[in-house]
Amino acid sequence: MTSQSQGIQQLLQAEKRAKDKVEEAKKSKGKGEKRTKKEAIAEIDHYRLQREKEFRNKQTNVMGSQGNLSAKIEEQTTETIRNLTSSYHKNMESMMKKLLNTICDINPEVHPNFRHAV
């Protein structure tokens, strides 16, 4: 009986050691998962910051060239308006004379298609 009791004791002790090892493995697994999760989050944050920096650089390049483009368009528009105003003032008087001459210079004639009733 003592040998059976010793065998049972050994089994219980072995079971306890196995249970302790399983719990220790679960704890280390949880710690490993937490560590891995923290590393993944840090890597994601680093990647996000890198991409945001690249985006800001591209945005600055594009917006900077758009600013130059809008200044160039504004300058061209001002020049076109100046040219049109100059042309208007230069040609206004002569065009008004031509228009008034055309309107006021009336020559009454019988139209060639008019048939005189005989």
Automatic annotation (TrEMBL):
Region of interest (Disordered), ranges: 1-38
Basic and acidic residues bias: start-end ranges: 14-38
Biased composition annotated in UniProt, kind: Polar residues: 1-12
Any GO MF annotation of the entry: proton-transporting ATPase activity, rotational mechanism
GO cellular component: synaptic vesicle membrane; vacuolar proton-transporting V-type ATPase, V1 domain
Keyword vocabulary terms for this entry: Hydrogen ion transport, Ion transport, Transport
Pfam families: V-ATPase_G
Domain of life, per lineage: Eukaryota
Gene Ontology biological process terms in this record: synaptic vesicle lumen acidification
Keyword DNA damage: no
Stored InterPro entries: V-ATPase_G
Signal peptide residues on this chain, from the entry's feature table: none
Family stated for the protein in its record: Belongs to the V-ATPase G subunit family.
NCBIfam families from the UniProt entry: V_ATP_synt_G (TIGR01147)
UniProt subunit comment: V-ATPase is a heteromultimeric enzyme made up of two complexes: the ATP-hydrolytic V1 complex and the proton translocation V0 complex.
Biological role: Subunit of the V1 complex of vacuolar(H+)-ATPase (V-ATPase), a multisubunit enzyme composed of a peripheral complex (V1) that hydrolyzes ATP and a membrane integral complex (V0) that translocates protons. V-ATPase is responsible for acidifying and maintaining the pH of intracellular compartments and in some cell types, is targeted to the plasma membrane, where it is responsible for acidifying the extracellular environment.
Name under which the protein is recorded: V-type proton ATPase subunit G
